[in-house]
Design a protein that fits this description.
InterPro entries: A_A_dipeptidase, Zn_M74/Hedgehog-like. Keywords: Cell wall biogenesis/degradation, Dipeptidase, Hydrolase, Metal-binding, Metalloprotease, Protease, Zinc. There is one protein chain. The chain has 107 residues and is mainly alpha-helical. The protein has a domain of 70 residues. It has 4 helices and 2 strands; from the N terminus they run ααββαα.
Length: 107
């Protein structure tokens, strides 16, 4: 699967938006109407309970205060030090993606 890159050519992740788009395109391609959003995994989602919204905000406030950045389409997905974090926070990435073969060779 191809990766998305920022203006410096850094990988900023791809899977989140692509899979949502793929599902929507598949439904529309079949002539189906998209369902009303319910219990979506977005960090700020009005379709979850007030308790869930409050818990997501509590998590977001704590994680953001510690310097993490959130993938807004996944409330549980936080990042620190990778290319996405660098892109969002305007900092150089602390580490980059590694090829699986390189990881195996190092172990």
């Amino acid at each position: 699967m191809p990766a998305s890159t920022d203006s410096d050519g850094l990988d900023v992740g791809f899977h989140c938006g692509f899979l949502c788009f793929e599902l929507l395109a598949s439904r529309l391609g079949k002539g189906e109407e998209p369902e009303a959003p319910r219990n979506l995994p977005y960090t700020e989602c009005p379709y979850v309970s007030e308790d869930a919204q409050a818990n997501r905000k509590l998590l977001a406030d704590a994680m953001s205060a510690a310097g993490f950045v959130n993938y807004p389409s996944e409330w549980w997905h936080w990042s620190y030090g990778d290319a996405y974090w660098g892109f969002v926070s305007h900092n150089p990435a602390c580490y980059t993606a590694q090829e699986e073969a390189a990881i195996e060779a190092a172990s």
